[in-house]
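Lab notebook, bench 4. We co-purified these components, and the gel suggests they stay together. Before we commit to crystallization screens, I want a quick structural picture of the whole thing.
Request: model the full complex, all chains together.
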Amino acid sequence: MSSSLSIILTIFSLCWIATLIIAIWAKKISIRYSMIWFFAAIILLFVGVFPSIIDFINIIFNFAVTSNLVIGILLSLLMVITFALTLFSTKQKKQIDLLIQEVSLLKSKIKKDDKQKK
Amino acid sequence: MASAPKVLLIVPAYNEEKSILSTCKVISDAKTSFDYIVINDGSSDRTEEILEDSSIPHIKLIQNLGIGGAVQTGYKYAEMNGYDIAVQFDGDGQHDISSVDNLLVPIIDGTANMVIGSRFINNSMSGFRSSALRRVGIRTISNFIKFKTHRRIYDTTSGFRAVDKSLIRFFSEHYSSEYPEPISIVSALLNKYKITEVPAKMNQRLNGKSSISKLKSVYYMINVILQILTLRRES
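Here is the predicted assembly.
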């Protein structure tokens, strides 16, 4: 892997980690949901700081250009993150549906009780 | 059941301002002992206003949930209020009130937990005519249900169905939010509930259009088949 790509990856992942920490401090992201982003940033930082690792891995995958392997790793990480977000949004949809049902039932009960009192 | 069962008609309604009043009038005029509750699924038209003005018993969902979420709310209401049987009865005038008694018989006899009002048994009774494409779709879903559960259900998309107390409890916990009619059949069969079909009269809808347009039908088939194949017994 070229040294320029290695430097770019290192700077990019450090900025990424800094952004995550700032977001956590500002309470814009919870630790729970930032973990997967930290995990991705640390992998990239590792690749940036120790570029020889990526060259070693490329012996197994045999990409024509090492930078393609880096892009491949990035794509894989994004797919994992997107899948995790899909799981999360599905869970949230179920929770919101349940909330809507319970609130609506409760509201109709309150309304009915009020009418009976009058 | 020793005494007469407590029956609730669940009437889901989304933007049914043109037909909801006549549907409710049909139910009231039938002079049955059934209670009914309209689930206004976050309608954006005058449905809520009509329900309020006419003092029709209803629950207003604060957001649109789709047919699955609306009907499940009805099951939750039935469970909360101790109903023995819940009947799904469409708000668009397709279902015939005189057929409800037929749906109740197998449940009262104790031979079924769910009874589906079918358009494909004793066709002469039904005034409903679906397109050839729609019939192919229903047949395909029926084959997938047979493959998954080893049971042949003919009218897999009929929303006209009655369920007993045990299924009211089950559906108030587990009910598909998307395309629930065929999925709830598979879910009930996998969980060892008994299902039967009886002939039921169905009319063409009074107003509005089906929730499944031609454009959505491909998505519908893929979604339903995937749901059927991936469903598991609830632990």
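Chain A has one domain: 3-91. Worth comparing against the SEC data before the next meeting. The interface with chain B takes residues 93, 97, 100-101, 103-105, 107-108 of chain A (CB under 8 Å).
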